[in-house]
Specification:
Helix content is 29%, strand content 30%. With 171 residues, it is α/β, with parallel strands linked by helices. It has a single domain (2-170), classed as Rossmann fold (3-Layer(aba) Sandwich).
Length: 171
């Protein structure tokens, strides 16, 4: 998560996706500089709410009890109004053939809108996500500037993903 947060650069506005790994990224973001974090995740919003220099914008919508994140047209319409410098996106699966996927169509739409709204995109996820495929595709591997994962992803497999465009960082 810290390696993903290190990719922040000079970004002023950041989207942080729902999910365990994106929440860890949110918690690793620097708190000593002004930053606006946009999220559909109640957990991410709560984790950052007390950070003095971080403005948290929680997207409205229907809250999914299983993920404690907002979805549906309210969420995507609100997100569509923003230009995001950097999006930290998670997924249930990432595959060279099928891209990034998630099982729920409503969640997929939020992720797809985050991809459209962001100038730069980083996938953060553990090695077990690689090769997994779910129902709804929301992005291609090549849509990402960077992929951050753990060293459990073999270096040869990381190299195959990097051939599709993104820098692959194994930590």
């Amino acid at each position: 998560a810290a390696a993903a947060a290190d990719l922040l650069g000079d970004a002023e506005t950041v989207f942080v996706d729902e999910g365990f790994t994106p929440q860890l990224v949110a918690e690793a973001l620097p708190r000593d500089r002004p930053l606006t974090v946009v999220t559909a995740s109640l957990a991410v919003a709560t984790a950052l709410a007390d950070a003095e220099k971080i403005a948290v914008l929680l997207l409205g919508g229907r809250v999914r009890g299983s993920t404690m994140a907002t979805v549906d047209h309210w969420t995507t319409r609100m997100l569509a109004e923003f230009v995001i410098d950097l999006a930290y996106v998670g997924a249930n699966g990432i595959s060279r053939e099928y891209g990034l996927t998630t099982p729920d169509p409503a969640v997929s739409e939020v992720k797809a809108q985050a991809m459209r709204s962001a100038r730069r995109r980083v996938f953060a996820g553990i090695h077990t996500k690689f090769g997994a495929v779910s129902f709804c595709r929301f992005a291609e591997v090549g849509d990402f500037e960077s992929i951050v994962t753990d060293a459990g992803l073999p270096s040869a497999e990381a190299q195959r993903y990097s051939l599709l465009g993104p820098q692959v960082i194994r930590v």
